[in-house]
Amino acid sequence: MSVTKRLIASPAVIALGANLGDRRATLLAATRELADAPGVELTAISSVVETPAVRPGGVDHDAPAYLNAVALVTTTLTPDALLDLLGTIEQAHGRVRAERWGDRTLDLDIVDFAGMVSSTERLTLPHPRAAERDFVLKPWLEVDPDAVLPGHGRVADLVEALP
């Protein structure tokens, strides 16, 4: 008797952002690369929104604006393997990690992974600042009106409560 192991796919929410170079082309290419990656199925992509750059001290109107979107995927990858994939895609697009919250050609973040709540040195789930970021919440709500951010509640309620 042969036993076939079936891989279980988990839903994940990925935030995409770029504020350097050809931002729209970079987001499109990154979305394609994510969709083409083994173990990942792209199920939805939001429209693109433009937002000012945010630094630890607040909005920086002198920095180039960001284009942001949210992708929904199902994946057979672990959270760490998905994070590795996102890092590889960022590097392929010239991502340099020189300054926290600095300008970047591409930023890919796991916002949610199957409703998991965890924190390691490499990855905190859900994303620790997602509940405060309209450029994550609004596009996410667009592609999933029933979305819930673990530990924070319905995304629709979070959007409504934004300043």
From TrEMBL:
Question: Start and end of every 7,8-dihydro-6-hydroxymethylpterin-pyrophosphokinase domain?
Answer: 13-145
Enzyme class label: transferase
**Catalyzed reactions:** 6-hydroxymethyl-7,8-dihydropterin + ATP = (7,8-dihydropterin-6-yl)methyl diphosphate + AMP + H(+)
Molecular function terms in GO for this entry? 2-amino-4-hydroxy-6-hydroxymethyldihydropteridine diphosphokinase activity
User: What Enzyme Commission number does this protein have?
Assistant: 2.7.6.3
* Key words, A-Z: ATP-binding, Folate biosynthesis, Kinase, Nucleotide-binding, Transferase
Record's keyword annotation contains Kinase: yes
SUPFAM superfamilies reported for this sequence? 6-hydroxymethyl-7,8-dihydropterin pyrophosphokinase, HPPK
Where does the source fall among the domains of life? Bacteria
InterPro entries, per the entry: Hppk, Hppk_sf
Gene3D superfamilies (UniProt xref): 7,8-Dihydro-6-hydroxymethylpterin-pyrophosphokinase HPPK (3.30.70.560)
Q: In which pathway does it act?
A: Cofactor biosynthesis; tetrahydrofolate biosynthesis; 2-amino-4-hydroxy-6-hydroxymethyl-7,8-dihydropteridine diphosphate from 7,8-dihydroneopterin triphosphate: step 4/4
Q: Which NCBIfam families match?
A: folK
Name this polypeptide is given: 2-amino-4-hydroxy-6-hydroxymethyldihydropteridine diphosphokinase
